[in-house]
Amino acid sequence: MASTPVEVMKTLLANTASLSTLETLVAQDATYTSLNYNHPSIQKILPYAGSHPNSGPRAIFDTFATVNKIWSQEHFEILSIFGSGEDVAVFGRFTYRSRTLGKESTSPFSIWAKVVEGKVTYMQFMEDTWDTTATFKTGGKSTYKVFQDQEEFEV
Questions:
Q1: Strand partners, 62
Q2: End-to-end CA distance of the chain
Q3: DSSP string, 18-31
Q4: How many helices (H) and strands (E) would you count in the chain?
Q5: 93: helix, coil or strand?
Q6: CA–CA dist 146, 150 (Å, integer)
Q7: Confidence (pLDDT) at 3
């Protein structure tokens, strides 16, 4: 059994496809936040996105199961992991390839987790969602206006 909060997170990230392992590492009432708190447009593309209060290990398991269903994981690398008390920070990069279109995305990721008495009670996962969702985009442009003195532009 993992003994420090950092070891708990290392074990969790190495076993995201094992619900039984996640159940030993994640509190039953843990909250998992993936990419944002609540963004219905993103949830149409990535149904696991958003905050999942008190959803426990199942929310983390279901997220990674969906990720593996819609992308093939070409690379996943933890670049740095460290902790202070109950807080753990993880930084890394991954490369995913969409199974529908074969498009590839390499994105940085970050995780903030709270580990209390050997169990994850909160986990927040962030990535470059603009780039990862683009692996499913088949067409169309969006119009933006960022600065008051700037013209609109399309991307």
A1: none
A2: 48
A3: -HHHHHHHEEEEEE
A4: 5, 8
A5: strand
A6: 7
A7: 85
